[in-house]
Target: Hydroxymethylpyrimidine/phosphomethylpyrimidine kinase
Amino acid sequence: MKLPKVVTIAGSDPSGGAGIQADLKVLAQFGVYGGAAVTALTRQTSAGVLGLFPLPAAWVLEQISDVLWDLRPPVVKTGMLQQPAVISGLGRLWGAYLQEYRDTAAQVLPPASSTTPAPTLPILVVDPVLSSGAGVSLVDGGGLAAFREDLLPVTTVLTPNVPEAEALTGMAIRDSGDMIGAAERLLQFGPQWVLLKGGHLPEWEGDRIADLLISREERRWLWGQRVPRADLHGTGCSLASALAACLALGLPVPVAAARAVEWLRQRIGSPLFVGQGRGVVCQKLEEKRE
Ligand SMILES: Nc1ncnc2c1ncn2[C@@H]1O[C@H](COP(=O)(O)OP(=O)(O)O)[C@@H](O)[C@H]1O
Ligand SMILES: Cc1ncc(COP(=O)(O)OP(=O)(O)O)c(N)n1
Model:
């Protein structure tokens, strides 16, 4: 088997709970090699985001291009992209990356027929980070339009939470029916799959909770046990990285999504308190120390 590799494109969180630091730790836990292109530096503690220092957009895009054509990762995951020029530029770069795969496959494979499977294309997991858990905006004006117009058309799996799906669609999401409507609207922007996370909805009955995984062909609810949730951050980054890792290990999207969601849910009720503020996702349950 080829070395499983994921490149994460995200911001830096010095406290290690979110951003590239969290992504690389999750990838390592799944046994997947991680590369990272950094979009912005934050001043951030476990209590929240104190400041944001974006790197020049052209320079960020050069970093991404360098690492894509060097490592040739089969899976890329995005976190805080922050600037519209980075979001749109990544859409263009990813289109070129996919095209090169198609051209190479056309040279080495026999012509496609009903019996030859289509070549496996690289996978782009987009976690549309818009704000920190405490509400600090992590995207500049124009970012939503850049996502909708330039990045979602080339996205394989989009992983919004409820507020992110509301912002991208302009639709209010109050219950599971609204989740379906918003996820279908998101599919119209172009992603092949949408994993709409349900953690922000109050409606779930009793001790159950669900996320919605949807494509143009299928719809699945990923049900799980709702646990009392301590205040923690980095859950969105960790889930998208776990999903990217499972995809790099060769699992199909529905299996990878179910496994990643389960992995995170096992950790949500049992965070690590590493600083003075919120908890972070515990990387290895069996090694948990207070
Ligand atoms: N109280 C909870 N108990 C169990 N799982 C939860 C709980 N809250 C959220 N989750 C799960 O954690 C993941 C992240 O959910 P969510 O909070 O919606 O997104 P985000 O972390 O991006 O804000 C989802 O798989 C969701 O089902
Ligand atoms: C550098 C950086 N990137 C992303 C976030 C947001 O983290 P996320 O896991 O999406 O959200 P919360 O769990 O914090 O709600 C961040 N804070 N910093």
Notes: The first strand starts at residue 5 and ends at 12. The helical segments are 19-29, 57-71, 84-108, 143-151, 162-169, 176-188, 235-248, 253-268. The chain has one domain: 5-105+119-283. The pocket of adenosine-5'-diphosphate (ligand 1) is lined by residues 161, 197-200, 209, 211, 224, 226-227, 229, 235-236, 239, 261, 264-265, 268 (CB under 6 Å).
